[in-house]
Amino acid sequence: MTPLRQQYLRIKNQFLDAIVMFRLGDFYETFDDDAKLVSSVCNIVLTGREMGTGNRVPLAGVPYHALETYLAKLVSAGHKVAIVEQTGTEPEGQQTGGRTPMTREVTRVVTPGTIVEPGLLEEERNNYLAALVVEKDRAGIAYADITTGVFAATQVDARDARQELERIHPAEVLLDIGSWKLEVGSASPISNLQFPTSNIQSPDFDSARQTLLEHFHIASLDGFGLAGLPLATRAAGAIVQYLQDNQKAGLAQLTALKTYSTQSFMALDPATRRNLELTQTIRSGAVKGSLLGVLDETRTAMGARLLREWLAQPLLDLNALNARLDHVEAFYRDTARRESMRDWLKRVSDLERLTNRVAQGIATPRDVTAIRASLEVVPRIAEVGNWKLEVGKDAPMSTPQRPTSNLQPPISNIDACPDLVSLIARAVVPEPPANLNNGGVIAPGYSAELDGIASASRNAKDWVANLERK
Amino acid sequence: MFGYYIEVTTANLPQVPPEYIRKQTLVNAERFITPDLKEYESLILNAEERLVELETTLFKEICAQIAGAAPRLLATARALAAIDVSAALGEVAVRYRYVRPQLDDGDAIRITAGRHPVVELTLRDEPFVPNDVTLSSDEMIHLITGPNMSGKSTFLRQVALIVLMAQIGSFVPAESATIGLVDRIFTRIGAQDEISAGQSTFMVEMVEAANILTHATRKSLIILDEIGRGTSTYDGIAIARAIVEHIHNHPQLQAKTLFATHYHELIALEEYLPKVRNYNVGVLEQGGRVVFLHKIARGGADKSYGIHVAQLAGIPKAVVHRAEEVLKDLEELQATGRLHRGAGVQLVMFAPSDPLRDEIAQLDVLSFSPLEALNKLFELVEKAKSRQSKS
Asked: Which of A13, A72, A161, A193 is the most buried (most CB within 10 A)?
């Protein structure tokens, strides 16, 4: 067996439940059963590779630059994928005999609930990782979208767990099945869940609490409303632990946890959501022909996602609803302002996901200039939006202004972040290349050192150019 | 390998200065470098490598600064999302002529000229027929009779959708709407969709009905479309009727209910359940043909028009004619009492009042001697038996 094969098997043994994609030169290779699976899911050729005398193993590989396409296929088929990169330029360890392979390790495990690649995500809906922990007749549910920073937890009657999971519509669910089988028996309301699931051993209350305290750098969870919700705490802890295990890039974007009660929303069972065709039709599953299809006149991906959330969670709070209606009415009554607002909004990129890509350290130069371009529109939007404070004066039908709830941030919450706009304007060229591989990203005048090197390089080039002319 | 060189054609080779270093020979040219050129080349290459390195470092620093402001950016992002949704709902409200619903904490739902937000956009040749509805604690259960295809299902769904739209903060497709906030919407609609799931249609229906009867409150809205359909007619009618009575009488339920059925036998319920109202879908008979008006009107449908639907669907004339004959026979049989329709009294599970039950409830058992108790029990059993034989 070759040293390379040994290295592969050592890594594979730590990720038995995932497809291991092993970077070798310009390819990500898969071996053995993984290769057979990848070959059939992605429709690529299954070959073999000699890995030691007489040891030919099945192999299927994809070119490194096409990884995202194949990841999309594997992940949307519900598979977990571990990406192994070469992480050092020195050979690994001290091996005797044979060539010793370079250091390689798993840099990321991609699962349906933890993807971050824009090409793999649906723009107009959140991509949630959910966790369900059940004990006796109670259930803790937590969910997070690492691309938007949403992180929420609740505790419900175990019989209502399915309904809440269907409402969340996660891309992946972590199940603590141990407690489930013991306490609730075979009549599990989560049988036949149509979401990809992983069985996990959820942390006990104390270690979940500790995980959360450390993640948020805080001394008490009470500020998040988790007091008295041990199962919600455990589910939230399970999410953070799972992300820590699978996302080496870190979880800086999960900055807060929101605890909610399903009691504050209209309950809709899965059959009713389906029957009323709220977000998709019964016949074709398409958005067109559903209520969402009629209502979705949003101009941004963020708005589209929020509208979908609103449809999934109708409110029971009169004040919050009237606050929303006041805002809608303001736009309803003033066509010119509505149109100008919608025109400005069209120029706003997905600020939510862009910000999270920056926080995760995976932003491209163009992501950063897109943040700048979006922020530059914000003052115009605020200007148009200020008008809404006048609601009720000239609108006989409208109800008096009520204190707005936290569900609809008042316009004053909008921060155009001028400091960031000017930073990006100074630092990054207006139309940067797609990546950092060939330079040309940082604007002249931002760094004296960079300008020095650039001008030395330019001088040398000029000298060569002069020579050519001679 | 990347590199600068000076290419000299074979003809010019004699003029090459001595300090030139030959690197490569081609068919009709040779390539040279000079020490100076070599030095500048490595300068350029080094500089480019350093440029990329430094740019990467600087870019990471910039990103770290932006990441430090992530909470502000995300707050802005979420505010923009909320503004976007409000503007979108404003746009939709104008475009499709919606109104602002009046919301309150009461138990009533009053909709004038309500429309189905999706269906109204799909109709091309005919205008959508709007409908009113008033559901309140006095008019709690609406029994809507009328043939299939007459628009019952659309009406039911549109009421649910209008309530739901109001409770996400949207304007609604109606001339006016007052909505007492609903804690939960239940639907039991159609039987066709779940057949593939392997469970029998009837079982699915009953599981969903059980869920509704267990969880609904007086703040809930229940939409029942053709419950009891997956079994025989009499079973179906019996179950449908029992469910309506339960919702009507059970103190914990009392939920606002829209119940569409093609069992026009059920319209009799209005006579003894005070909060039940009969409605029907308007039908116009013209020269033996039927035109659906899609208008919901007060009163029960007197017949089911099933045969007319068969005719509309293209069933051969001879079959339609024969069906009319059979129906006539059946109706005559029923009139003479030989084929009795409803198993009336037995199905009253929660009758509003029951003398026997009242009597039992008022017994003070502790004041009885054992013999008195036994006598009382005997008497009650006799009363119960005599009631049973009467009915």
From this structure: A161
